[in-house]
Amino acid sequence: MLACEPGATVSSAALPSPPPALLAARARDPYPYFAWLRRHAPLHTDRRPGRPTVCQVSRYADVRALLTDARLSKDPVRVPGYIAGPAGLNRHLVHADPPDHTRLRALVNTAFIPRRIAELEPFIADTAGRLLDRLEHRTHVDVIADFAAPLTFRMICAVLGIPPQLDNAQTRDTLMATIAPAPGHDPARVDHALHALLDTLIGGKRTGSAPGGTDLLGALVRASDESGAMSEEELRSTAYLLLLVGHDTTMNLIGNGTLALLHHPDQAARLTTPDLAPRLAATAVEELLRYDSPVRDATFRCATETITLHGQTIERGDIVSLLIGSANRDEAAFPDADRLDLTRAPNDHLAFGYGAHFCIGASLARLEGALALPLLLRRLGPVALAKPAEELPWRPARVMRGLAVLPVVRH
Q1: What residues are paired with 319 via a beta bridge?
Q2: pTM exceeds cut of 0.85
Q3: Distances (CA, A) of 258 to 275, 302, 304
């Protein structure tokens, strides 16, 4: 049961408004805004005429409880037009309630069991090493474009069984344009390019012109064609989802994590110490996931009935935005929450969500981060940001939090 903490009741009669300066700085640094919400408006409701009401939930205990609350639906049909994205590609496990969610997750789950992910370790290490070999004699490096983006995309391509000729920057750009479009982009052109890409990928599995074997995309195509366990719309939506999220979230982990370590050189030094790094890598990744979460807000949820929280009401039909980034900095759950501590334990962060919708690719992201970050720091050597941190551009995505570029200079 959700309940207000003692002494923390917020009156619904006169709710405070966030200071304009915090609102203006949210894209670059949302954490002061999140701290304000947790203290002054743990349920912050934005009601505007002609638009769906959005209720932001910022405290750890509330976010964790609501992540498993059956009164919150993941079905986008409940609020037509609220979820922006490619046409016809919203029928996947992230936007589904049971029993559809259970069925779709079961079809995908076997590709991400820990044993199968562990088998990718040599491939991840080799790929990361080859990317860093190319940077050996370069003074200026963009950690995102030169390392995090190609590494994470190659890994999800390997899991899905994407042909090598489509593992390239053009394919990545097509995907990323669907969530963080460039200024002046043409949405129809982006949609056309994405659907053409999916046609190529799925068609290749059906004709045998692309590698099949035991890869995940081939298995999903067979589930659609032979058993009818997945509709064509679900197949295309799931292929899009896995390709995008399997790349984007882990790219953000490496980018956000590297920036955090540049701001905390004492912590970074521990990850490059030979006798410490192997033992520290796993807990370091958990702390970096908590400290600057790759997923800022939990994905879409809609209230199916009235919910009371902190003396306020979430009405049926309201959008509920669960602020994962805020929950992971909640002082009530994490002592000294704004401090980066790579040895922090326990660390029950919510970066991968919680409950039935817990991120299916968590084991892959963790392994990539644990291998890539220490290797990146060690191979680059001493580096500094090539521009002030406040000038770094963050991609304008609704749910994710990730840098567009991370330029560094090697000493």
Answers
A1: 54, 302
A2: yes
A3: 20, 34, 40
